[in-house]
From TrEMBL:
Organism, as annotated: Streptomyces nanshensis
Domain 4Fe-4S ferredoxin-type, first and last residues per copy: 1-29
PROSITE patterns attached to this UniProt entry: 4FE4S_FER_2
Pfam families reported in the protein's UniProt record: Fer4_13 (PF13370)
GO molecular function, one term: iron ion binding
SUPFAM superfamilies in the record: 4Fe-4S ferredoxins
Highest taxon of the lineage: Bacteria
Keyword field: 3Fe-4S, Electron transport, Iron, Iron-sulfur, Metal-binding, Transport
Protein name as annotated: Ferredoxin
Primary role: Ferredoxins are iron-sulfur proteins that transfer electrons in a wide variety of metabolic reactions.
Source organism phylogeny: Bacteria, Bacillati, Actinomycetota, Actinomycetes, Kitasatosporales
């Protein structure tokens, strides 16, 4: 699994951080999402898929 985060699309909602805190975080200055791990283990796949699904800006893409 590979995750692609488009920071230009991010609207700083924090949904990804709540869904997958081991994979996503937010910048202090503006709340834009940052990717902590672009190739997480299969254990967190469900959380990452959920994060992509709930992103209001559709800024997260999961590639298999």
């Amino acid at each position: 699994m590979k995750i692609v985060l488009d920071q230009d699309k991010c609207v700083s909602s924090g949904q990804c951080v709540m869904a997958a805190p081991d994979v996503f975080d937010q910048r202090e200055e503006d709340g834009v999402a940052v990717l902590l791990d672009d190739s997480p283990s299969a254990d967190g796949a469900e959380d990452v898929e959920h994060a992509a699904a709930v992103c209001p800006a559709v800024a997260i893409r999961v590639e298999r």
